[in-house]
């Protein structure tokens, strides 16, 4: 039976075969469930959140979670030092984190793919100029470079997203360059060139579609990195500004309360951990599913 199943799997299209392998990966499915949960939370935040995330109530400040004696179901996860509901701020924080990941990764993906594709296709002097600039960016720790960029242009969530996108460009550029160089030497590219295909058509119609597997994996992993870096910038006061309900900013606001109100720090930190874990699990599963060399 196993031989028949293996033969049937090999007869399927590459997309269906990859999807079948992905469904068998339990860690990838767990990551997908986590990500879908956060996406739904972000979309339906106004319907799910029990309170306005920036509404203050000094009479309700530092209320503990509901399972404590003086807790209340009106504030299931407690409140912060301004009386704001932690659960509502966490729910709305998912919306901000998903947007940060989407914008930052889109910037890095767009510019990194174009630069890497051009460098890998034309090589020579163009390749040297582009890749030496990428090496210059990689010489700095990404979070340190993002801090420098945000400090220069001014602290805000918008500038933080742009900075994270810029520091992530080299990862995509190097990845795409290697994939393009590998595909460029294959016979189908030479055949298309012999038929009169232009450089633009060869690069964007024939070569890049065959480089999608590693790009998809890197994009998924990049979401987790972007969320983590955005939280770090907000924690330092360079990202989302008060009273924006962003997880990193919530950590910064609650760090002085950690001994009196542990819930003000623990729950936002756990959300960051869970979101990054979900994207990393899905990215690892996609790598196993899309790379034919990793078949069992």
UniProtKB/TrEMBL annotation:
What Gene Ontology cellular-component terms does the record carry? plasma membrane
Q: Where does the ABC transmembrane type-1 domain start and stop, copy by copy?
A: 94-283
User: Could you tell me which InterPro entries the record lists for this protein?
Assistant: ABC_transport_permease, BP-dependent_transpt_permease, MetI-like, MetI-like_sf, OppC_N
Q: How does it sit in the membrane?
A: Multi-pass membrane protein
Show the SUPFAM superfamilies listed in the entry: MetI-like
Establish whether keyword rRNA-binding is in the entry: no
What Gene Ontology biological process does one annotation of this record name?
Answer: transmembrane transport
Subcellular location(s) per record: Cell membrane
| Main location group | membrane
For this protein, the record's Gene3D superfamilies field holds: MetI-like
List where the protein spans the membrane: 28-49, 96-121, 133-154, 261-283
Keywords from the named record? Cell membrane, Membrane, Transmembrane, Transmembrane helix, Transport
- What PANTHER family does the entry give? D,D-DIPEPTIDE TRANSPORT SYSTEM PERMEASE PROTEIN DDPC-RELATED, OLIGOPEPTIDE TRANSPORT SYSTEM PERMEASE PROTEIN APPC
Q: Which family is this protein grouped under? A: Belongs to the binding-protein-dependent transport system permease family. OppBC subfamily.
Task: State what protein this is by name.
Answer: Peptide/nickel transport system permease protein
Recorded source organism is Thermodesulforhabdus norvegica
């Amino acid at each position: 039976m196993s031989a028949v199943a293996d033969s049937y799997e090999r007869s399927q299209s590459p997309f269906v075969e990859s999807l079948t392998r992905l469904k068998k990966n339990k860690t990838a499915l767990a990551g997908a469930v986590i990500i879908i949960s956060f996406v739904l939370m972000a979309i339906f935040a106004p319907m799910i959140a029990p309170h306005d995330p920036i509404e203050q109530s000094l009479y309700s400040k530092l209320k503990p979670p509901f399972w404590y004696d003086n807790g209340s179901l009106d504030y299931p996860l407690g409140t912060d030092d301004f009386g704001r509901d932690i659960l509502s701020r966490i729910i709305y924080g998912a919306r901000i984190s998903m947007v940060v990941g989407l914008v930052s990764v889109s910037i890095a993906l767009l510019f990194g793919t174009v630069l890497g594709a051009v460098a890998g296709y034309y090589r020579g002097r163009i390749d040297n100029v582009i890749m030496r600039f990428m090496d210059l960016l990689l010489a700095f720790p990404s979070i340190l470079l993002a801090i420098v960029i945000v400090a220069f242009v001014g602290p805000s969530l918008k500038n933080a997203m742009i900075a994270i996108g810029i520091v992530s460009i080299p990862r995509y550029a190097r990845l795409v360059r290697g994939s393009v160089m590998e595909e460029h030497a294959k016979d189908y590219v030479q055949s298309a060139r012999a038929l009169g295909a232009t450089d633009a058509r060869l690069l964007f119609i024939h070569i890049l579609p065959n480089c999608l597997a590693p790009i998809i994996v890197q994009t998924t992993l990049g979401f987790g990195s972007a969320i983590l870096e955005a939280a770090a910038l907000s924690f330092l006061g360079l990202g989302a500004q008060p009273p924006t309900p962003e997880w990193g900013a919530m950590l910064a606001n609650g760090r002085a309360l950690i001994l009196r109100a542990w819930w003000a720090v623990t729950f936002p930190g756990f959300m960051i951990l869970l979101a990054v874990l979900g994207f990393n699990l899905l990215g690892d599963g996609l790598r196993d599913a899309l790379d034919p060399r990793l078949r069992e």
